[in-house]
Design a protein that fits this description.
By secondary structure, the chain is of the alpha/beta class. The chain folds into two domains: about 260 residues, Rossmann fold (3-Layer(aba) Sandwich), CATH 3.40.50; about 35 residues, no CATH class. It is about 30% helix and about 25% strand. The chain has ten helices and twelve strands. Strands 1, 2, 3, 4, 5, 6, 7, 8, 9, 10, 11 and 12 form a twelve-stranded mixed β-sheet that branches. α1 crosses α3. The radius of gyration is 19 Å and the shape is globular. It starts with a strand and ends in a 14-residue tail after the last helix.
Length: about 300
């Protein structure tokens, strides 16, 4: 699919090298169609890496998509040049007047902070409430998925003693849901988190369905029956080397991390890692765009109904 992104965004060179179709504004303007409007609220410190990972997953559909990269505040992120943020990111105030077909809110390295102690918690809750009125379907990833459960339903996450890290086999619980169309009954996905909400908590919330889960990770894909909210507790966007980089970083910082499970050959970090999740991740985002966004969004975004 043609993802419409700025011609000089660093992600474009990476995606072009992977034979992923991206389009600049001039070429997109020649197509007589109404593109989807998708915002990405990027909370990760390394913005550029996360941009590439998410844009890659949005790339496998014939739909044209206009992407807005959104920042939570004007503070310079630790691992991203200020010039990059100034060139490619919009503040929430700059897009608050807009309606979007889809919104993705990424995870954030905030596992050990209470929500009230997160410096931009008030802004996050403002955006989550705004999305109920301005976005057809919002996808919350990892930390953001737990934050949404707390904000909307009052269910706080628990913290695990040890980080859940590795690649785990999940089962499809709702084979007829369009978000899982084309999935095998079992599939793999990476996780990297301390937070956890017991699966029975999700089952207790009226209007939510646990679409995929595993005995080791609990609920993985959760969606509202009206398709307006999707929570992903893992990281289908991860690059092949991401878990290895996290393990190496935490080891070098003397955090004594556990070896990511089911990732390295024979669970030996000196040996190659196995990549078994990327096709599922691509299909998950393609299905979200097609069935939860494109098939349900109004042609005129001004007609977008507010979520009750």
């Amino acid at each position: 699919m043609p993802i419409r992104i700025p011609s000089d965004l660093p992600a474009q060179d990476v995606l072009n090298a992977e034979n992923i179709f991206v389009m600049d504004g001039e070429a997109a303007a020649k197509q007589d169609i109404r593109p989807l409007e998708v915002g990405i609220l990027n909370l990760m410190p390394n913005k550029i890496e996360t941009e590439v990972q998410i844009l890659r997953l949005l790339s496998n559909t014939p739909l044209q998509i206009n992407i807005d990269l959104i920042r939570i505040d004007n503070q310079a992120p630790k691992n991203t040049p200020k010039a990059h943020m100034d060139a490619f990111y919009l503040s929430f105030d700059e897009v608050a007047h807009k309606n979007y077909d889809g919104l993705i809110i990424t995870g954030a390295p905030l596992a050990h902070l209470d929500y009230a102690d997160v410096k931009y918690w008030d802004k996050i809750t403002t955006i989550m409430e705004w999305a109920r009125r301005h976005v057809q379907s919002t996808l919350y990833s990892c930390w953001a998925a737990h934050a949404a459960m707390f904000h909307f339903y009052g269910h706080n996450r628990q913290l695990r003693e040890h980080k859940l890290s590795g690649v785990y086999t999940h089962q499809v619980n709702a084979p007829h849901d369009e978000l899982l169309r084309g999935f095998d009954p079992e599939f793999n996905a990476p996780h990297s988190r301390f937070g956890e909400i017991p699966i029975d908590v999700y089952h207790s919330v009226e209007g939510l369905n646990v679409l995929a889960s595993s005995e080791q990770t609990g609920a993985y894909i959760i969606a509202s029956k009206d398709k307006r909210m999707v929570c992903i507790t893992g990281h289908p966007e991860y690059d092949p080397e991401t878990l290895d980089q996290e393990f190496t970083r935490d080891t070098n910082n003397a955090l004594s991390p556990r070896i990511p499970e089911n990732y390295y050959e024979n669970n030996d970090p000196t040996k190659p890692y196995h990549v078994t999740w990327r096709s599922h991740g691509s299909l998950l985002f393609t299905n979200w765009l097609n069935y939860y966004v494109y098939q349900t969004t109004p042609f005129d975004l001004a007609d977008l109904p507010a979520k009750k």
